[in-house]
Amino acid sequence: QVQLVESGGGLVQAGGSLRLSCAASGSIFSINAMGWYRQAPGKQRELVVTIIMSGGNTNYADSVKGRFTISRDNAKNTVYLQMNSLKPEDTAVYYCNAARVWTTPTTWWNDFWGQGTQVTVSS
Predict the structure, then answer these.
(1) 105 CB contacts (<8 Å, ≥6 apart)?
(2) DSSP string for 51-105
(3) What is the mean pLDDT of residues 79-105?
(4) What is the pLDDT of residues 35-87, one digit of tens each?
(5) Which CA distances in Å does 88 have to 5, 12, 113, 115, 121?
(6) pLDDT of res. 1
(7) What residues contact 42, with CB distance under 8 A and at least 6 apart?
(8) Across-strand partners of 107?
(9) Are 19 and 6 in contact, with CB atoms under 8 Å apart?
(10) φ/ψ of residue 18, rounded to 5
């Protein structure tokens, strides 16, 4: 019905940068919000950042403020995460999320997830 495909993960040294992409496809009329979450080994999944697709309002985790930037392309149902000044503690699997996906003007579904992309930051 709705698929999220992430790309852009990899291995980088501390202080480096990576850019993640997440494209939503399928039966989509509109999407209220998209975002990125991450899960490090042995830890719970945590919010990184969310963005309201219509207005662009964002919500960043304190740990990434000033280093990570989310952007969107509404026409492509795609969000990007520019990650700068990466730290070893940013190492995790990063998951893309789409919240409140409208498949018709009157029908919506909550919480679609991507398959995850590994980000590893070496010290």
Answers:
(1) 29
(2) EETTT--EEE-TTTTTTEEEEEEGGGTEEEEEE-S--GGG-EEEEEEEEEEEEET
(3) 97
(4) 999 999 999 999 999 999 999 999 999 999 999 999 999 999 999 999 999 99
(5) 25, 9, 24, 22, 5
(6) 86
(7) none
(8) 104
(9) no
(10) -145, 155
